[in-house]
């Protein structure tokens, strides 16, 4: 079962190829993006090792179980806070992809309607599938999509239209000191380990730490792709003007003999399915954490079912409200603000975990 | 219940294919009226039951306005079906428009979601209208012969520069890499001639390259690796070398006092395709030298011509930027490029003299 850790990490990396991270990195391409990528990779890898290391000690336990014996004043804010932070993770991905859908796939549908369709699909899956089933869903989606995504990436790398000197120009800015916003963005691509907070309950067995070396390497390659390929296609100077650099990049791909000449359609459909899975996973984490705050012994099943429904209903309402309120610019502002809050929160969570582990060790 | 809601949501956002007009190519000319900016020409394909060469039908919708958006709005009011731009694979700019601010002109095309980034771009001489109105005898579908010329599936020629919209935009903005577009002319009444090319600065068309220069550019920049070159022999005869393979490397060298040398190494392998006069086997070594000298001279002339106009479609400036750390590299380049020296070295290998020797 330990292979699911890799899936959790990979899906998080993949989904970030598309929306916020490339925009932030490209914005800072002349002031510290390269150093931020390196520093972010380092921080992300350390956090990954830390989270896996701590969860390895407590087989089949998630964060709610780990934190279960600590006092209410610590337990409730951590679980509740992280639940909403991770809800926002799903929300920002969903908002961005909803925006892409109504902009590029079906411009005749209104944003609210499309969001309604997406959120109903996500919430229904959330209501009926447990952690183990979701991991299997993730495996299937990756098995179907990953080869096609790799094909498109390969096609992008060998494309004649890519100007390598532009990429070299951006790389030549490596001495610039790292940038806070970019580091916050970069570390998010490694945040797949947050899934362990809940999914560790169904991951049996120890996750071998030594074999995790592949993930930082993959993450680095992923970041290089997400950042440098748009630069190669649209130039070091011109790439900054695009709302979605990767939509513009996918639009620059052409396969002469493929059934569909324009790869952008294929790319968007692939990415929407990957994004939906990632939203489902994020919200599942959020949902489970939220439930664990309110789970008290002695409540009847019927009450509990109603409470679950109310929680999911709240998720739906909030996301529809957000879609109604946010325009494209707001979505980006929200995403960026969230990335920074999440980075801080994740570091705090790491401290809490270390503290918990030390206390447990002391008590045994 | 949730699934039930989905059925209620199903709208009618989609128009059937028979309610659509497919725009196959877009032309932008300078308006005839003084006070207006553009004449926009949309070429709409008219579907036909049986497809025959030369019997294709299309409609040209022409609008004179100040912006491309307005032109399309008015065009929409003139036709009975929805305009669909998803198959607009070619965008041609009239020569006069190309001499204006191109950054402004292409803004519409990169901003709109339904215009392809992989649409081919060209300059029409003299007007886009003339190019779009032509109906070549061999054409089965509207605009298809130009699509075949630019794509890799049809003819391949070093004289035809292929440029996509996204790449043209990149070059308009990238310091150190200047845009180059093919020039499409109507030759006689029934054929396109695409053998010249236009080099742009960061805004407008500046220089027209002859067919010979265009082919040399294609080879030197790696866009094409097959081209024919005519080599005059010292004994008065001449022969033609068909390149099979070519490889160019550009290196920048910089001395202490700020002078710059641009070293260009070219390796060419080719086949003798036609001989006028004589080319005996024992003179092959000499012929090779002559070929090297000819190519070297021609390449140097092209580079010097571009340097004189301050243009750089090879992207040498971009290489300079990429290989130097710091923010001042672009200023360095602009001060040194005008008096940089070129070192062109050519290596020719003649594989065979063909079926005759």
Automatic annotation (TrEMBL), chain A:
The chain crosses the membrane at residues 5-26, 32-55, 76-97, 109-129, 136-158, 178-200, 212-233, 263-283, 303-322, 337-358. The keyword Amino-acid biosynthesis does not apply. The lineage of its organism: Bacteria, Bacillati, Bacillota, Bacilli, Bacillales. Keywords: Membrane, Transmembrane, Transmembrane helix. Coiled coil: none annotated. The keyword Magnesium does not apply. This is Spore germination protein. It comes from the Bacteria.
UniProtKB/TrEMBL annotation, chain B:
This is Ger(X)C family spore germination protein. Residues 14-186 form the Spore germination protein N-terminal domain. The keyword Transmembrane does not apply. The keyword Membrane applies. It comes from Paenibacillus sabuli. It holds the Pfam family Spore_GerAC_N. Keywords: Germination, Lipoprotein, Membrane, Palmitate, Signal. Belongs to the GerABKC lipoprotein family. Gene3D superfamilies: Nutrient germinant receptor protein C, domain 3. It is found in: Membrane. GO terms for biological process: spore germination. Residues 197-354 form the Spore germination GerAC-like C-terminal domain. GO terms for cellular component: membrane. It is a lipid-anchor. PANTHER family: SPORE GERMINATION PROTEIN B3.
């Amino acid at each position: 079962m330990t292979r699911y850790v890799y899936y959790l990490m990979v899906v998080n990396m993949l989904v970030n190829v598309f929306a916020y991270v490339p925009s932030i990195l490209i914005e800072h391409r002349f002031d510290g993006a390269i150093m931020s990528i390196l520093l972010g990779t380092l921080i992300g890898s350390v956090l990954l090792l830390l989270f896996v290391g701590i969860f390895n000690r407590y087989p089949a336990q998630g964060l709610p179980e780990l934190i279960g014996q600590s006092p209410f004043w610590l337990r409730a804010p951590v679980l509740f806070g992280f639940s909403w932070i991770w809800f926002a993770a799903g929300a920002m991905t969903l908002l961005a992809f909803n925006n892409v859908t109504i902009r590029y796939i079906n411009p005749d549908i209104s944003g609210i309607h499309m969001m309604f369709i997406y959120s109903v699909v996500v919430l229904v899956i959330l209501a009926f599938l447990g952690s183990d089933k979701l991991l299997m869903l993730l495996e299937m989606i990756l098995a179907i999509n990953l080869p096609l995504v790799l094909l498109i990436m390969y096609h992008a790398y060998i494309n004649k239209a890519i100007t390598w000197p532009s990429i070299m120009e951006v790389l030549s800015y490596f001495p610039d000191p790292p940038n806070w916003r970019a580091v916050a963005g970069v570390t998010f691509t490694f945040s797949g380990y947050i899934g362990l907070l809940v999914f560790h309950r169904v991951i049996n067995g120890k996750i071998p730490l030594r074999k995790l070396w592949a993930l930082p390497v993959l993450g680095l390659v992923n970041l290089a792709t997400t950042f440098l390929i748009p630069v190669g296609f649209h130039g070091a100077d011109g790439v900054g003007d695009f709302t979605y650099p990767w939509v513009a990049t996918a639009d620059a791909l052409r396969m002469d003999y493929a059934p569909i000449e324009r790869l952008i359609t294929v790319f968007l459909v692939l990415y929407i399915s990957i994004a939906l899975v990632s939203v489902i996973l994020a919200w599942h984490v959020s949902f489970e954490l939220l439930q664990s705050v309110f789970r008290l012994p002695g409540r009847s099943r019927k009450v509990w079912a109603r409470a679950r429904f109310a929680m999911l209903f709240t998720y739906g309402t909030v996301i529809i409200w957000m879609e109604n309120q946010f325009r494209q610019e707001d979505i980006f502002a929200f995403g960026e603000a969230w990335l920074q809050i999440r980075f801080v929160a994740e570091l705090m969570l790491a401290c809490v975990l270390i503290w918990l582990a030390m206390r447990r060790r002391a008590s045994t | 219940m949730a699934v039930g809601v989905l059925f209620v949501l199903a709208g009618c956002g989609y128009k059937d294919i028979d309610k659509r007009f497919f725009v196959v190519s877009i032309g932008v000319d300078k308006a005839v009226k003084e006070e207006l900016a553009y004449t926009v020409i949309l070429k709409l394909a008219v579907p036909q039951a049986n497809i025959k060469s030369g019997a294709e039908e299309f409609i040209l919708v022409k609008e004179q306005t100040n912006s491309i958006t307005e032109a399309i709005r008015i065009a929409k009011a003139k036709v009975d079906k929805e305009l669909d731009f998803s198959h607009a694979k070619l965008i041609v700019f009239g020569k006069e428009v190309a001499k204006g601010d191109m950054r402004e002109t292409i803004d519409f095309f990169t901003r709109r979601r339904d215009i392809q980034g992989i649409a081919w771009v060209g300059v029409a001489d003299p007007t886009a209208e003339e190019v779009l109105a032509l109906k070549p005898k061999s054409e089965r579908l509207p605009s298809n012969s130009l699509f075949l010329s630019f794509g890799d599936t049809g003819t391949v020629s070093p004289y035809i520069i292929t440029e996509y919209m996204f790449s043209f935009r990149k070059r308009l903005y990238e310091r150190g890499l200047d845009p180059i577009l093919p020039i499409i002319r109507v030759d006689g009444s029934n054929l396109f001639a695409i053998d010249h090319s236009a080099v742009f600065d960061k805004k407008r068309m500046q220089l027209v390259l002859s067919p010979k220069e265009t082919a040399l550019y294609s080879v030197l920049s790696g866009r094409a690796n097959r081209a024919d070159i005519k080599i005059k022999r010292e004994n008065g005869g001449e022969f033609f070398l068909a390149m099979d393979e070519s490889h160019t490397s550009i290196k920048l060298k910089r001395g202490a006092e700020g002078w710059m040398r641009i070293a260009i190494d070219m390796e060419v392998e080719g086949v003798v395709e036609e001989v006028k006069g004589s080319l005996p086997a024992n003179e092959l070594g000499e012929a090779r030298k002559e070929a090297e000298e000819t190519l070297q001279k021609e390449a140097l002339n092209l580079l010097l011509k571009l340097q004189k106009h301050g243009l750089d479609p090879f992207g040498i400036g971009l290489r300079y930027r990429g290989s130097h750390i710091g923010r001042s590299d672009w200023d360095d380049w602009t001060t040194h490029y005008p008096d940089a020296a070129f070192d062109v070295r050519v290596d020719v290998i003649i594989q065979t003299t063909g079926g005759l020797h």
